[in-house]
Write a structure and sequence with these properties.
Distance between the termini: 37 Å
Largest sheet: 10 strands, mixed
Strand content: 25-35%
Number of helices: 6
Length: about 300
Amino acid sequence: MRLLTHIVSPEQEGWPLRRLLRQELRISGSFLSRLKWRPGAILVNGRPATVAAVLHTGDAVTADVSDLPGDNPHIRPVAWPLDILWEDEDLLVLNKPAGIAIHPAALTEETVTVAGAVCHYLGQGSFHCVNRLDRGTTGVMVVAKTGYVHRLCMEQLHSGDFRRTYLAVCSGVPSPAAGSIDLPIGREPDSLLRRRVDPAGLAAHTDYETLWQGPDRALLRLTPGTGRTHQLRLHLSAIGHPLLGDWLYGQEDRDLIPRPALHSHRLELTHPVTRRRLTVTAPLPEDMARLLPEDMNKS
């Protein structure tokens, strides 16, 4: 159960309860229209109240923003260890390994997914992923523990309040060493998986910076300004520097690395409830570290 509590301030004297729930606690109209029918979900000074109730300074308003029945299809929990980087009562921040999907694919019979592992860990059947990572991508990902928190997170996704930084090892060395890639992305015809650069597609923006370069590869810092499917992989391939190990947009070499060399390294966000700034990082995984000189700083 997730309860929010707010003490009515002098500036909120005379507000109807509905206004405080919508404006101060940021409960959406659709969620509130369902919440008000849940017994005991909305209280003023410990007593049930209608959303039309008039509030007075010092009143204690409590709202139960836990998921409502039917908010999310049931996901089968599975006991699988999670690498938890940070957690509180609203958010779960994970270090995702390579080789595991977020959700089970429609045409596969996967038994282990991030969704199933999270549901087992939280003891619930609902899953609210904020930033999705491809099966082969490692690193920081955020899960909201309720649909209420998930909606607040999604409002800041792809904004300055939610900033993601990736590390990638690409083939060759980009020139210039730093820059921006603005190439729209659309679906590849006749493919369920591939994307392509398409003038009629959705706008996509990626900033890149070369952190290290060798004779045949480079370590890049990537900052996406948008969140299109396969954006980073496709953008680097489009400028002639596909990720090492990228079998879809580059060249597969399982002896070098058995996946695209892409890692969600750092995530900064404004906590949706406390509104404090949160920064979480995940160390470079071993398979990508092996692509770089042993003595370089991989922090």
